[in-house]
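Repro:
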Amino acid sequence: MTMCATSPNEPISIGARPELTHKLSDTARRAIYHLHEQLAEYGPPDCQINAADFTRIEITVSYVVKKRIDPATAYTAVDGKAVPIHEPLTKVLKWCQDCPVREACLAAMSELNYTGIAGGVILKKGEPYDYAKARPKRGNNADTESETSDGLW
């Protein structure tokens, strides 16, 4: 049986309708309803039509946000392999530019504290991802080469 999870502790079988483990706010509920209305009116957006590509870049975005990487970076190394960031991210963000449900998507995903791409914006927990604020600060930590000691001196 194929399994998926609503939370790490509650696996469910595919096709089952899990009960929500938390209540959505009225604002979130309205935003999601509005998004569904627009999807019904305009049809599936490019991110849904190209779901495999979108899923791959969403995984990359979650890595970028977690590791505080600049989205303009061309490539990053993951397990010794070069993973493209900028080009596929730009491709997906371009889909959003012309999307008729862009604003509804951004509103709904912001209300759900989503991390990923929504409405042409990279979100981290529902807020626009700001690489400048996410960067680790240089200071009195031993993360820089000049401040580390090899134990010889």
